[in-house]
């Protein structure tokens, strides 16, 4: 059977023909675009013409538009505006608004209004008792590593922080290290309320929550590996980006070292200063210090998995006491967080995962 493939000349001819078709199509599109632009201009010019109607016309009617629709504007319609119509506004008409006329969205807040603590779209509450959650934020940290050289690899399989229904946070960090070095991951979420003190005095802020969390790491043999894994909840009161009071509750904390306790301490510092402090906002440094100060249970034969669980019938609570000034706006923030650091001293595979689900049952303030 003869070869049916086109020759080089035939291929070139087809290519040129296609180029011609494309060029023709481009020209047609250009013409169509110009035509549409002209139609748009006609519509724009006639939008204020009272002689026109808003009735949709068929294509045939459009093609046979009447002379009235294409008439030349009369002298009255095209006249030059008079001097009175084009005059420059007087000083009184262009004056700068007075202080009382300045829009709320652009005014400068006083210290008591705490400009930096209150987004302008949110109206602070002054409730004693249960308070609402005004906003939430997802705070996954960028995975961090050190000592990774040559063919060593890190794999951040999952780094997720999601918030739903203004009351639930699902936090997951899952990563692996192939070779020697250190890998750290962290994910947090923030629940915020803006509260204006009704009067000066001492108050107590309480957050109640429930949920569950778990960790696991592999392989079981840890002679050349070190791990630290954490899941915690922070409650803070802030104003003008300044911390007034705070408390961090550990929900799950574990360390496993094949070397010595100092190795776990160093990994906690890595987690705190490389991940938590830079990525969790104002309260990041507070959580970081708490993480470093924990006396983490360190065992050479610690199980490779662990968990915590609490229910709505028996929720955890964390509370702080603070002194407030009447009229000042305070930011209440609940920040659940999970993280881990893993370090390998041998050219082997190392993996770790921490996952927690937090339900914020309620946030309340009371006067002491």
| Beta-strand content estimate | 35-45%
> How many helical elements?
6
Radius of gyration (CA) equals: 34 Å
Largest sheet at a glance?
11 strands, antiparallel
Distance from N terminus to C terminus (CA atoms, Å) equals 99 Å
| Helix content estimate | 10-25%
What average pLDDT do the residues reach? Answer: 74
Structural class: alpha+beta
Shape call: elongated
Beta strands, count: 11
Output the helix-strand order.
HHHHEEEEEEEEHHEEE
What are the low-pLDDT stretches, counting only 5+ consecutive residues below 50?
1-13, 15-117
Description:
The protein is α+β, with helices and mostly antiparallel strands and 368 residues long. It has a domain at 115-367. It has 6 helices and 11 strands. The chain has helices at residues 8-46, 59-63, 75-78, 83-86, 261-279, 284-293; strands at residues 129-130, 135-140, 144-146, 153-164, 168-196, 201-218, 225-239, 242-257, 305-310, 316-324, 329-367. Helix 5 runs antiparallel to helix 6. The protein is elongated, with a radius of gyration of 34 Å. The chain starts with 7 loop residues before the first helix and ends with a strand. The model is unreliable at 1-13 and 15-117 (pLDDT under 50). Residues 32-120 are annotated as: Disordered. Residues 68-94 have a biased composition (Basic and acidic residues). Residues 48-57 have a biased composition (Polar residues). Residues 95-119 have a biased composition (Low complexity).
């Amino acid at each position: 059977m003869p070869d049916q493939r086109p020759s080089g000349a035939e291929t070139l001819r087809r290519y040129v023909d296609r180029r011609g078709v494309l060029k023709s199509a481009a020209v047609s599109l250009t013409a169509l675009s110009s035509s549409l632009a002209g139609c748009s201009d006609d519509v724009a010019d006639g939008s204020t013409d009272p002689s026109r109607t808003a009735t949709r016309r068929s294509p045939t009617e459009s093609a046979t538009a009447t002379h009235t629709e294409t008439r030349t504007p009369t002298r009255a319609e095209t006249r030059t505006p008079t001097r009175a119509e084009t005059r420059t506004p007087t000083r009184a008409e262009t004056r700068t608004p007075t202080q009382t006329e300045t829009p709320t969205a652009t005014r400068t807040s006083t210290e008591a209004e705490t400009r930096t603590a209150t987004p302008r779209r949110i109206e602070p509450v002054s409730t004693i008792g249960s308070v609402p959650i005004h906003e939430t934020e997802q705070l996954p940290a960028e995975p961090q590593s050190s000592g990774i050289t040559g063919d060593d690899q890190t794999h951040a399989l999952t780094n997720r922080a999601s918030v739903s229904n203004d009351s639930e946070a699902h936090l997951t960090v899952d990563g692996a290290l192939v070779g020697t070095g250190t890998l750290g991951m962290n994910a947090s979420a923030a629940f915020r309320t803006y509260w204006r003190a009704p009067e000066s005095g001492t108050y107590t802020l309480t957050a109640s929550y429930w949920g569950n969390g778990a960790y696991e790491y592999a392989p079981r043999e840890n002679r050349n590996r070190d791990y630290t894994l954490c899941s915690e909840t922070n409650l803070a009161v802030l104003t003008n980006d300044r911390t007034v009071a705070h408390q961090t509750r550990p929900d799950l904390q574990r360390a496993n070292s094949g070397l010595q306790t100092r190795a776990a301490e160093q990994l906690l510092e890595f987690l705190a200063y490389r991940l938590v402090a830079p990525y969790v906002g104002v309260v990041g440094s507070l959580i970081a210090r708490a993480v470093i100060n924990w006396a983490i249970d360190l065992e050479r034969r610690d199980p490779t998995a662990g968990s915590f669980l609490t229910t709505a019938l028996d929720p955890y609570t964390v509370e702080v006491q603070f002194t407030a000034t009447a009229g000042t706006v305070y930011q209440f923030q609940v920040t659940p967080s999970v993280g881990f650091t893993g370090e390998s001293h041998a050219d082997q595979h190392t993996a770790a995962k921490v996952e927690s689900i937090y339900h914020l049952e309620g946030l309340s303030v009371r006067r002491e």
